[in-house]
Amino acid sequence: MKKMTEKALQEAFLGESMAHIKYLIYASIAEKEEYKNIARLFRAIAYAEFVHATNHAKALGMIEKTGENLIRAKEGEIFEVEEMYPVYLQTAKMQDEKDADIGEIYICPVCGYKAEFKKF
Fold it and tell me: What's 3's domain CATH number?
């Protein structure tokens, strides 16, 4: 794939992925506010965005068999914990951005319990 096409496809993948999550968040809010049909609408739109993102991921060669996907997922999570979030947290602290708290969350590998977010 040519570099310009790949870059455009990566940007499209990121946009579709963010839209997917955004609409799931909107659905959760609508559900809490007891707008069940609006929540369903947001979930349907989120699914469409998921399909779009999946198609882009396939075209970019991001989807492999489960074994390779596990390795990629593990590498991505390790990068987030060990490199990405510590830098984000330090930057937010340095700039006194209390609302930008990314939260330091711990998820138990045995039971799945999620620890509360900590403010800095």
Answer: 1.20.1260.10
